[in-house]
Predict the 3D structure of the following.
Amino acid sequence: MEEVQQEQMLRDAVAAVSGRCAELIRMLFFDSPALSYEQIARKLGLATGSIGFIRGRCLHRLRKELLARGWK
C-alpha cells in the first residue's frame, strides 16, 4: 500500500514541476526505452550540452516538491 502511495506522490510531484522539467524527467526516467541526451535535446529544442545542467535543476525542483509532500 505504501508503495502505491509513493508512486502516486511521485507522479503528482512530477506533474507539479514546470512543463519542460516534467517532460525532461519523464523522458529521462520513465520512457522505455530510455532516450539519449541527443534525442531529448532534439525533442525539447535544446543544445545537447545543456541537458545535464537542466536535468540537475529539474531534479532539484522535483526533490523540493517531494519533500513538501512528505516524501520519506
Notes: The first helix runs from residue 2 to 16. The chain has four helices and no strands. The mean pLDDT is 92.
